[in-house]
Amino acid sequence: MKNHAQSIIVFVFILVSTLVNGQEFQGEATYKTSRKMDFKIDKTSEKNGIDADMQKKMSEMIQKQFQKEYKLTFDTSESIYREEGKLAAPQPNSDGMQIMVMGNSESNMLYKNMKEKRYTNQEDIFGKVFLIKDSLENKKWTLSTETKFIGQYQCFKATRTIEVDKIAFFSLNDGKEESKLTKEKVTVTAWYTPEIPVNAGPAMYWGLPGLILEVNDGSETIICSKIILNPKNKITIKEPTKGKKVNQDKFKSIMEKKSKEMMDRYRGNAREGGQMTIQIGG
Predict the structure, then answer these.
(1) For 270, which DSSP code?
(2) Is residue 112 within 8 Å of 79, Cβ to Cβ?
(3) Which of 23, 74, 105, 250 has the most CB atoms lying inside 10 A of its own CB?
(4) How do residues 61-84 score in pLDDT, each as one tens digit?
């Protein structure tokens, strides 16, 4: 029965796709993001003045950094995903704390070509622009018959299991401990609508029989708040071309190196009595 229902979902997607085939189908979807943070302070940090009240403020500041708005511009084979609005420079609060998120820039954009199964991600890291070009992973989704409405669109549930890195320990003040990462399996839940017959979605999510309107991976939630289909002004999707070309593995090693440099710099400032800066890789 379950496989039969999934076949019906796919059939509906193919039917709707057939109806729009031969005519241009474009759209813009606005998404809002939020992140749940599990933020803990070690005993050494507590001895150096990081009390429960300051810990709460730090957690709130970090969560605020991840409350953003993005726009996904799409057609039947391509999409561009980028943050809306200009980011202000991070400012320390009255306690001298400052939150910095690596990879945040209004010039950042993610281009996906679902037909050719590839992507180009333009990332500005502290003023240096990278162009990450690689293949889209065709990760398998498990389709469900469970439904709900997001706005006016009926959405179907899909899930998949992924393995992620999790920080098991993080020291702020003793200058001796490194971040310790463990592997953890998490379930990603997506809600997509066959009423919009594209296999696009926010961030790196794609590959479902309909536009993905909501995603939750256990810590981050991305949800669509507005959709415009076939706007009066024709949409032009251009693949980004600016930046040093690297693949995803190379870019990951660069980010790890940058994170270590920032942590070493913090430790030097901490020993000299400088302000506290928390570095988040985003």
Answers:
(1) H
(2) yes
(3) 74
(4) 676 777 899 999 999 999 999 998
From residue 273, give the alpha-carbon distance in Å to each of 51, 266, 276.
18, 10, 9
Tokens of 45: 């940090």
Instruction: Tell me the residue type at 161.
Output: T
Encoded amino acid at 26, one letter: Q
Which residues face 250 on adjacent strands?
none
Mean confidence (pLDDT) of the chain: 78
3-state secondary structure of 156: strand
How far from chain centre, in Å, is Cα 72?
12
The residues pairing with 142 across neighbouring beta strands, listed in sequence order, are 159
Look at 54-63, 71-80, 239-248 and tell me which has the smallest mean pLDDT. 54-63
For residue 54, which phi and psi values (nearest 5 degrees)? -65, -35
pLDDT over threshold 50, residue 163: yes
- Look at the block and give the residue holding tokens 């992924």: 162
Calculate the CA 50 to chain-centre distance. Answer: 29
Of the ranges 125-129, 176-180, 217-221, which is most confident? 217-221
Q: For 43-84, give the DSSP string.
A: HHHHHTT--HHHHHHHHHHHHHHT-EEEEEEE-SSEEEEEE-
Best CA proximity match to 122, nearest among 114, 131, 113: 131
**Mean pLDDT value across residues 80-104:** 61
Dihedral sign of CA atoms 187, 125, 63, 223 in order: negative
- Measure CA 117 to chain center: 19
Is 97's pLDDT higher than 90? no
CA dist., res. 138 & res. 207, Å (int): 7
Residue with structure tokens 């039947």? 76
pTM as predicted: 0.74
How is the chain split into domains, by residue range?
Answer: 2-281
Rg (CA), the chain: 21
